[in-house]
Please model this.
Amino acid sequence: MSGTDRSVTPILGGPAVVLVAPQLGENIGFAARAMVNCGLTDLRLVRPRDGWPSPQAEAAAAGALDVLAPVRVHETTGEAVADLSRVYATTARRRDLDQVVVTPGQAAAEMRALGADGGDAGVLFGAERSGLHNDDMALADAAITVPLNPAFSSLNLGQAVLVVAYEWFRSGDDTPARTRTDTGEPQAPKEAVLRLMHHLEQALDRATFFKVPANRPAMVRALRVWLTRSAPTEQEARTLHGVVTALSGHRLDGERRGQRRLPQGGDSD
Model:
């Protein structure tokens, strides 16, 4: 899904993402892309198997590495998180550790609150094959587990970063849950909508749509509510006028042709 707009000022910052012993450069690139999608720019690597920098990561990141702050590479997880005041560790399985476990959404809310107080947070992600070791988990203040199908809850590295990063982004986002695409076309004035209603009702009367006269008022009200709720633009109102006209004319033409084909009285020769 394409959505890159370089004319818009990017959202930057957020908690650090620490990839511990990542194996494939491509997965580092996918993780970087997920980070930039959600406004995170601090990527740290601990012992990347294939070294750094990585042409494979560059290709998979689709330009995201150009937006990130310079990627920091560390030899140990402790070094990577030394400057952070709170650390979360992602895991998909139970551990033999007495540790608080939170959802990505809860972790995002806590990291937002911490950032507002001037603290820095980070999230640990383990290697693709084995995840984080318990020694890495022990460095975390809390564990993050994504609520998923309990029989199949494993995520690849890029997916895991995206889920956590997205919850972080959502925690500070005020996008309305429902909106309407703005085409720039002005909404039709009430007079135009009323004309359309009248036109539609006349056409329905001619077509004997209202079979039961007593039901006509309620049906007309329902149609008017629908047209009002749809808030048509001026162009949409004109188009609907044309639709009603075309359908009305088609019906009348068909009736005339039918009358010519089947004259009243007597059989055809």
Remarks:
- The CA atoms of residues 21 and 55 lie 17 Å apart.
- Strands lie at 16-20, 43-46, 72-74, 86-90, 101-102, 121-125, 142-144.
- Residues 258-269 have pLDDT under 50 and may be disordered.
- Residues 190-261 form one domain.
